Amino acid sequence: MTSVTLTGISRRFSRSCPGGNRVLKYLVLATTILTCTAVYFIYEALTFAGRADQVHAFDAAPSVSQEPEHPIEKLIIYAQAEQRRLLSKQSHNLSTAALRYQERRGRRPPPEFDAWFKYAHEHDAIVVEDFFDRIYDDLNPFWTLEPRELRRRSGPRAHEHVISVRKRKAILQTTHADPMGRMPQWHRLVEELAQWLPDVDLPVNVMDESRLLVPWEEINERVQNEAAARRVAPPSEVRTEFTGLPAIDSEPEEEPFDVHWIDSPSRNISPIDIYHDAIDMPIAYPRHSFSGYVQNWTLSKDPCQHPHLRSLHGTFIEPVSINTAQSLIPLFGGSKLRQNNDILLPPAMYLSTDELYAGRGGRGPKWSQKKAGVVWRGVASGGRNKAETWTHFHRHRYVQMLNGTAVHAAETGSLPAEGTTFKLPAQGQYGVVASGNGSLGGWLSNVTDVAFTRLECFPLPSTPADETLCSYTNPYFEVRPPIPMHAQYGFKYLPDVDGNSYSGRFRAFLHDSGSVVLKATLYDEWHDSRLMPWLHFVPFDNTYIDVYGILDFFIAAEDNGVHDKLAERIAGEGRVWANKVLRRADMALYVWRLILEFARLCDDRRDVLGWIDDLNSY
Ligand SMILES: *[C@@H]1O[C@H](CO)[C@@H](O)[C@H](O)[C@H]1NC(C)=O
Ligand SMILES: *[C@@H]1O[C@H](CO)[C@@H](O)[C@H](O)[C@H]1NC(C)=O
Ligand SMILES: *[C@@H]1O[C@H](CO)[C@@H](O)[C@H](O)[C@H]1NC(C)=O
Ligand SMILES: *[C@@H]1O[C@H](CO)[C@@H](O)[C@H](O)[C@H]1NC(C)=O
Ligand SMILES: *[C@@H]1O[C@H](CO)[C@@H](O)[C@H](O)[C@H]1NC(C)=O
C-alpha cells in the first residue's frame, strides 16, 4: 500500500543516519566546526580589504565593498578565500600530482597514473587532488570486501546493466533497454578512454533514484577499517601492472551474487497518516546556516541534519521508482543522497547534447542585456504527487514560494490551508527590504516568472481535458508553456531544484548561461568537490526559506547597484570555472581515475599495485 511510504523511507533513513549517543557527539563536533568557521569569517572579513586586488582571476567585475555588512557578502568573501587555498594546491607536473595523491590518499597512485596525468595535462585540466575526493568517499568502504567478492558482486551475472572493459575495448552488456538511454552515453565515454583502461566491470544504475542504503553502523565500521589498513607500499613490493580480468572470466563458476533488491521499503511498517497535518516547515534560520544562509554546503544537503525534510521533499514521500538493497554492492550512478552507497559517475544527462538539458551550447547574452529577474520552467516531478500529498512536495513548494500572487495571498491570510505548501519567514528574520510594504508578493510578481509546464497528476484522470492539468492542483498553479534554455539565459537569476533526483540542467546553466545559478539540492554529484558555493553559484536551503533574502539582497536592495555587480561576478566566475573543470574532458578524467581505482580494488594484488615515479620513488 503506497500510503505508507513516508514513514517507511524515513525509518529507513533514520537507520542510515548516525545513531545513539553518536548523535550527540556529532552535534558537538558540528558546533565546534561552526564556531571555528564563524571566527574564520570574521578574520577573513577584517583582512579582506587589504588584499582585494589579488583576490581572484576573474577581474572583469569589482570586488565587494570594503566592510561587508550583510551575511551574504561575508559568505562570498569566505568562498573566495577557500578557492584561493584550494588552487594553491594545484599540481602542474606528474611528480607533484603523485606526491599530492599520496599525501591525501595514504596510498600509492594506481598503475598507469602517468597516462592519466598526461591526458590531464594535454587537455589543460586543473589538477587539484581534492577535486577527486568524491571518488574516495564512494570507494573506501569497498576496500573491506575481498577482491574476489567484489568481482562477483560487480559482473554481468549479478547486474542487468554493465559496462565492461576487456583488452582495451569497451563492451556494453544489458539484458534489456534502459528507459532513459543512459547506458549509451556512459558507454561512449568509456569507449573514448578504453585504449588506456584496465579490464573492469562497471554495473550501472539506469533508474532516476539511487539504490543502495547500507545501515550507518555497518558503513561506519567499514570506513574505519579501511582507514586503519591504508598504507603506502614500499617500492620493492610495488607491482605496476593490473592482473586483468581474462583470468577471472575463466575462474571456476561460483554462485552468482544475488542482489536482494527490496521493492517496497515500507513493507512491514505500519502506516501513519501524515497527509492532513499542516505543513511542518521550520521558519527559524536553518541549522548550520550563517545568519540564515547556507554556509556549509555538505551539511545543508544532509537529510540526517534536517529531519523535517522527510515531509518536505518528494524523495521521502513517494519516489517514482524505488528498488533498494541493503548490502554493500558496487553500483555506479549519476547522483545519490549522502546516505546512499552508490558510486558516482558524471550523470548521463551531462554527457548528452539533448536540447532539454544542454541548450545546444548556445551562450547567454551579456549581463547588461539580461532581465533583472528570475525564471524557471519544469514539470511537477520530484516524486509521485497525489491529492493527499502534493503540498509536501518540494517542487510544488518551490513554485508556490516564487509565485508573487500566492505569496501575497499568504501575506494577507487568503491562501487556503489545503492549498498551502509553505510558510513565510518571520517578519524581520531576513531583513527583506521588499517586504517592508507588507508586499513581498507584489514585489515578487515583478521579478519572477516561475511556473510548471505539466502538473503530473496521479492517477491521470480517465478523460483528461488536457493532460498537462490536474484536478487537485489546478486551482493553485497555472501551467505555462516551456521556455527554451537559451531564452532562460536572458534572465539574471536561474534557480535550480531537485526533480525525481538531481536536476539535469545544472551543468548547462553554469557552463553556458552567464547568469547566477541558485541551487538547492539533497543530492551528491561527481562535481561536488570542485564547485564552490557563493563563488560559482548561490546555494539555498532545501526548505527554500532563505530564497527571499537572497533575491532581496541581489535585486531589491537599495545599494546603487553594488549587489548587482556581485551577482555579475558570481555569474562570470561560475561560467569561467565551469568551462575549466566541468568540460567533457574533465568528466572523462574523473571516470578514468575512478576506473583505475575500481580496477585496483577488484585486483587480488591490490595492496601492492601502484604507480612509481622512475626518477623519484620517495
Ligand atoms: C614539478 O613542480 C614542482 C612544484 O611546482 C617543482 O618544484 C618541481 O621541480 C617540478 N618537477 C619537475 C620534474 O618538473
Ligand atoms: C562542512 O561540514 C563537514 C561536516 O561537519 C566538515 O567535514 C567540512 O569540513 C565542512 N566544510 C566546510 C567548508 O566548512
Ligand atoms: C513600496 O511600495 C511603494 C508604492 O507601492 C513602491 O514605490 C516601492 O517601490 C515599494 N518598496 C519596495 C521596496 O518594493
Ligand atoms: C512593480 O513594478 C511596477 C512597474 O515597474 C511598479 O510600479 C511597482 O511599484 C512595482 N511593485 C512593487 C511592489 O515593487
Ligand atoms: C500563482 O498563485 C495563484 C494563487 O494561488 C494561482 O492562481 C496561479 O495559478 C499561480 N501561478 C502560477 C504560475 O503557478
Automatic annotation (TrEMBL):
InterPro entries: CAP10, O-Glucosyltr/Glycosyltrsf_90. Signal peptide: none annotated. The keyword Transmembrane helix applies. This is Glycosyl transferase CAP10 domain-containing protein. It holds the Pfam family Glyco_transf_90. PANTHER family: CAPSULE ASSOCIATED PROTEIN, KDEL LYS-ASP-GLU-LEU CONTAINING - RELATED. Keywords: Membrane, Transmembrane, Transmembrane helix. The keyword Transmembrane applies. Residues 299-605 form the Glycosyl transferase CAP10 domain. The chain crosses the membrane at residues 23-43.
